[in-house]
Amino acid sequence: MFTGIIEEIGMIEEVLAQNKSMQLTITAHKVLEDVRLGDSIAVNGVCLTVTSFTSERFTVDVMPETFRDTSLSRLSRGLKVNLERAMAANGRFGGHFVSGHIDGVGVITGKKRVENALYIDIQYSAELSPYLMPKGSIALDGTSLTLFYVSEKELTISLIPHTQEETILAEKAIGDLVNIECDMLAKYVERMLSRKAEKPASNVTMDLLQKHGFA
Fold first, then answer.
1. Backbone phi, psi, residue 39, to 5°
2. Does the pLDDT of residue 202 top 60, yes or no?
3. Which value, in Å, is the radius of gyration of the alpha carbons in the chain?
């Protein structure tokens, strides 16, 4: 589990790519302070497992499903990435519940500065629409954000100066991809409501209960 509060910007040092998978070596410092083999680190919002590390870099494997369904397949040497360690049980919770499991990939369609804010427009898949609403939570490349505006095909977020400086989002250009994870609570609610609607009506009636002595 993650919070969506980016701890550090790392850099891709090496990419070993196969047809449908890859291995990434990433330079970092803060997220390696207490790292152990098997720990989870979110890389641009994707939960990955540390397979080896030194004091200056760590390695993770990207499986075929992750390779296909996230923007990690576009990474190359020298690119920056958002990094966050899994949330410690005794740590402060600063963002929102982020699982590190990506729901879709969006495309940046616009950027505009308004005073000290940076507005970024992102086109998203229509299947994510039920989980998005103005003022709701969303994680973009692992960054916990509040939705500023939502339409049927596009969403807008507003970056404060701190987020512009501490994440890679402000550096992204129009046409670049971002990993999208919708609010976990919204997904649970939508799932429960859909299952409730699909559940067949009960055959238990008052007459039936009275007939068998239960009422």
1. -65, 155
2. no
3. 21
Q: Note whether 119 and 108 are within 8 A (CB).
A: no
CA distance 177 to 122: 9
Report the alpha-carbon distance of residue 85 to residue 33 in Å, rounded.
10
Question: How many whole angstroms separate alpha carbon 163 and alpha carbon 170?
Answer: 8
The DSSP bridge partners found for residue 155 are 122, 150
CA atoms within 13 A on the CB side of 117: 8
pTM for the model stands at 0.86
Decide: 6 and 83 in contact? Cβ < 8 Å. Answer: yes
Average pLDDT of the segment spanning 56-70: 97
Structure tokens at 190: 């939508």
Give the Cα separation of 142 and 41 in Å (integer). Answer: 11
